[in-house]
Each structure stands twice: as C-alpha cells, then as structure tokens.
C-alpha cells in the first residue's frame, strides 16, 4: 500500500457534481459514459472510468470508439484512467447471455487493443488494468492472463466489487494483493464502505472509489438537492477518515510489536 491511501468520490448525477464542486473535493472519479463527463476546475486528482457496466447494460457494447475515449483523456488529462473492461456481475452476464470467462477474455483483448493505440497517442495519463471475475480464484486466473499477455499495468484495479458481501470482497482484495508484486499499486472499484472498515482492507489498497453517498441521497431524500448530497458526502468522508486513522494506528502497533 502507498504511504497515503486515496479515496475517489464518484459523481454521476448533477446534484452530486455540484456537491463535490462546492466542497472542492480534490479526488474525483468520473465515468466517461456519464452524460456530463466534463471535469470541473476544483478537481486535483481525477480518475476516469470507462463506464463499462452502464454501456453494456444499455447497449451490450461500448458506444464510443477507443480513439474517442483516448481523445477525451488527451483533452482532460486525468491522473489515472481505466482500460476498457467487461464487468462480471451475474445479472449483467445473464442479460447478455455470457459467462465470466467470456468477459475476462473480452477485457484482455480490449486492454491489448486500447494499449496499442494509447502507446502512439502521446497521452500523459496512467492506464489502469482492470481485473475481472466473480469468485476469488477467477480474479487470480485473470491476473495471470493479463500478466502473460503483457497488459498488466503497474496500477491495477479490481472490478465487479459493487454490492458484494463485505467478507467476500475483502477476501478478493487480500488474495489479489498477495498475488501482486510490491511494485504494483491496487485500486478497488465501487467498494462498499462496509468493506473498507474490515481488518487490513485499507492496508491492502492504494486507492478506492465509491458513489454510495449519491445512492443514499437518491434512496433517502424525496428531493435530491446538492445540499443533501453534501450531507451524505461529508458523512461518508468522516467515516473513511476514521477508518484510515484506525488503520494507521494498527499498522504502528504491529510494527512496534515486531521490533
């Protein structure tokens, strides 16, 4: 794990964008597939997601070309961007009549295709390979495949973690961290806050993202104003800060016991 764990706040709705902009949140995740995907000026660290789930759920395939995606990256210069992947949530696979293996292979092929174009595009943003699967052993087999195909980047992300059982998500994170070398950094896409608070999860990650505060606003508030988004965003931010501090204390205690 990096010296400083970084958490990116996702924003798909207009009220969520305004809330993060008003609060000058520096770490933001924006999906390329979102209708309003233009970054706002207060962002210091931008992570661009390819928006695979929404694209496949609605259209069965990405609607923009790889060159269009790379042109967007060249224009807005995010710090990090996800290589295009194919999520493995069971509901999506059932709808598309595909298997986990189908989407792992599609992810690997699209990574290679996109990286070949990226290498000639003069883009400064760092690419992030996305591991796909559903069971822990499936993620590990996809990790081996990406490595063998030469498309395993230095920064690696874990996909299909949204709405997972916290213990299962934590198990996947730990197994992948143990399978990666120390030079690799690890990101968790759409991780639940109930997973982040489990033992050693934050220590295993360099970064993570979530738009759960936006979901809470839409579920709990009759009118979705940006001020209500701010309330849930700040609540989430306090929780994450508390877990990070707890994690640092645990690490310090462990180091002192080992001396």
Describe this structure in words.
Pfam families: DpdA (PF23859). This is DeoxyPurine in DNA protein A domain-containing protein. There is one protein chain. By secondary structure, this protein is an alpha/beta fold. It has a single domain, classed as Alpha-Beta Barrel (TIM Barrel). The chain is built from 11 helices and 8 strands. The chain has an 8-stranded parallel β-barrel. Helix 1 packs across helix 11 (226-258), helix 6 runs parallel beside helix 7 and helix 10 packs across helix 11.
How big a fraction of the residues is strand?
5-15%
Portion of residues in helices? 40-55%
Q: How many E strands?
A: 8
Summing up helix and strand content along with how strands pair, one would put the structural category as: alpha/beta
CATH topology heading: TIM Barrel
Second-tier CATH architecture: Alpha-Beta Barrel
How many helices? The count is 11
Determine the mean pLDDT. 91
Assembly of the depicted chains? single chain
Q: How would the global form be characterised?
A: globular
The rounded Rg comes to 18 Å
**Order of strands across the widest beta sheet?**
1-2-3-4-5-6-7-8
Structure described in brief:
This protein is α/β, with parallel strands linked by helices and 259 residues long. It contains 11 helices and 8 strands.
